[in-house]
Write a structure and sequence with these properties.
- The complex is a heterodimer of chains A (91) and B (384).
- The termini of chain A are close together.
- With 91 residues, chain A is α+β, with helices and mostly antiparallel strands.
- Chain A has three helices and five strands, in the order ββββαααβ.
- Chain A has a three-stranded antiparallel β-sheet, covered by helices on one side. In chain A, strands 1-5 form a two-stranded antiparallel sheet.
- Chain A is globular.
- In chain B, α2 links the parallel β2 and β3.
- Chain B is α/β, with parallel strands linked by helices and 384 residues long.
- Helices cover 37% and strands 12% of the residues of chain B.
- Classes of the chains: A alpha+beta (91), B alpha/beta (384).
- Chain A: One of its GO terms (biological process) is pyrroloquinoline quinone biosynthetic process.
- Chain A: Functions as a PqqA binding protein and presents PqqA to PqqE, in the pyrroloquinoline quinone (PQQ) biosynthetic pathway.
- Chain A: GO terms for molecular function: quinone binding.
């Protein structure tokens, strides 16, 4: 199995990620459902574009949040959880 | 890291925005399912909203924060302006769901809707085999058409939700139903046991499964779910059990006027699609803006909060969890919508639920004895 860092996450077909001003949050929309994301989950999913692998996403986020230290564990853990929830797929 | 936020508050303290908008475009439908949630007197409804009126509703809803939009009915496909409404909704940023019987759908329409921006099509079935399916739907060609359309939906790349309304005449088919869904490649399967409103309340005795039937079905669903998990399948089974077999009521619509806003074909705005049966004056989008309807109308404020509650709800420590249950069910079973939902074992009217359970153990009525949902039968309900 390829290491998680080298895998490329993408949203599952039928899922949409967008900013909702009324909720002041990013949300994930799917058939007849919606998850309101907290700031960190929103920041990670915003970078999930089906092009870049997890290592690239971690690097981008570490650049965005220089005071946060290493984000590899947090981001990996969240993406694994998101996969289990069937929000995203890895390729 | 947890991903979820608490729910937001809207323009008024304590009242959140209507995140879910259900657009019931029409009560017209080619099928006659005897558990239809439309009002019994639907044939009395005059004058559906025009395209322009629906567009105005969609814009107002989106401005208030609605993100999920359902196009339903009746059969929404009978509206010729559906592609236009889909395109408008998608452009506004809604996640758009089409809830359809599949009748009147074609491969060309499935693709045209996708190009217009439709996110998801839910196809409903009545059973896992053509004979029973068509008998329940009151249509000889329904099953084959549904199968063809489910395949077309999948082919076009939509996420696929298949919905089965479950009752005493098809509850023995759980395994066959789920296996059919697996073959069709469904992502979600809703096995929704009848909720007894509208036509389903009228036909309750002929629809409600017995406790034994229900337990057997639940065990079958659980076994199948384990098999799916073991095989790594992402198909999700959602089994909605009837609240008539519960001892505590459901938190209906997550609370009155809390998340859901339904607009009926004639523009009547409702806190849920059944609320029309209540003796409450509900506002119409032809006369008021969605914003004033949601935040300021007496209809939508009627059962917000808990100051309206009589006993046993008033002093109940669970009232914040279930809001006293369902107002429509309280009205249908006790004649007063303020009462506790009789599903609750603390309700003084709980005996009505127990009597329905008992009747379900002894029911013998066949499908042919049900009152089917069609225009002729509907006229009987308002001519009196």
């Amino acid at each position: 199995m390829t290491k998680l860092l080298e895998q490329i996450p993408r949203l599952r077909p039928g899922f949409r990620f967008q900013w909702e001003p009324a909720q002041n949050a990013h949300v994930l929309l799917y058939p007849e459902g919606m998850v309101r994301l907290n700031d960190s989950a929103g920041a990670v999913l915003k970078e999930v574009d089906g092009q870049r692998n997890v290592a690239d996403i971690v690097a981008t986020l570490e650049q965005q949040f220089p005071d946060a230290g290493s984000l590899e564990d947090d981001v990996s853990e969240f993406l694994k959880d998101a996969e289990q929830q069937h929000w995203i797929l890895f390729s | 890291m947890t991903a979820r936020h608490a729910m937001p508050t809207g323009d008024r303290p304590g009242i959140g925005p209507p995140l879910w908008l259900l657009a019931e475009l029409t009560y017209r439908c080619p099928l006659q399912c005897p558990y239809c949630s439309n009002p019994l007197d639907f044939a009395q409804t005059q004058q559906e909203l025009t395209t322009e009126e629906w567009v105005r509703v969609l814009r107002q809803g989106r401005e208030m924060g609605a993100a999920q939009l359902g196009f339903s009915g009746g059969e929404p496909l009978v509206r010729q302006d559906l592609p236009e409404l889909i395109a408008e909704a998608r452009q506004l940023g809604y996640y758009t769901n089409l809830i359809t019987s599949g009748l009147g759908l074609s491969e060309a329409k499935v693709n045209a809707f996708r190009d217009a921006g439709l996110d998801h099509i839910q196809v409903s079935f009545q059973a896992s085999d053509p004979e029973l399916n068509n008998a329940v739907a009151g249509s000889r060609k329904a099953f084959d058409q549904k199968l063809a359309m489910a395949r077309a939906v999948k082919e076009a790349g939509y996420p696929m939700v298949l919905n089965f309304v479950i009752h005493r005449h098809n509850i023995h088919q759980m395994e066959d139903i789920i296996s059919l869904c697996e073959r069709l490649g469904a992502d979600y399967v809703e096995l929704a046991t009848c909720q007894y409103y509208g036509w389903a309340f009228e036909n309750r005795e002929g629809l409600m499964p017995s406790k034994a039937q229900l337990e057997k079905a639940e065990a079958e669903v659980n076994r199948y779910r384990e098999r799916l998990t073991a095989s790594g399948s992402a198909m999700k089974l959602i089994f909605v059990t009837p609240d008539y077999y519960e001892e505590r009521p459901k938190a209906c619509m997550n609370g009155w006027g809390s998340l859901f806003l339904t607009v009926a074909p004639d523009g009547t705005a409702l806190p849920c699609h059944s609320a029309r049966l209540l003796p409450i004056d509900f506002p119409n989008v032809r006369e008021s803006s969605l914003h004033s309807i949601w935040y300021d109308s007496p209809g939508f404020n009627h059962y917000r909060g808990d100051s309206w509650m009589p006993e046993p709800c008033r002093s109940c420590d669970e009232k914040g969890r279930d809001f006293g249950g369902c107002r429509c069910q309280a009205y249908l079973l006790t004649g007063n919508a303020d009462n506790a939902d009789p599903v609750c074992s603390k309700s003084p009217h709980h005996d009505r639920i127990l009597a329905a359970r008992q009747a379900a153990d002894h029911a013998t009525a066949g499908l042919e004895e049900l009152t089917y949902r069609n225009t002729d039968n509907s006229r009987l309900f308002f001519r009196g």
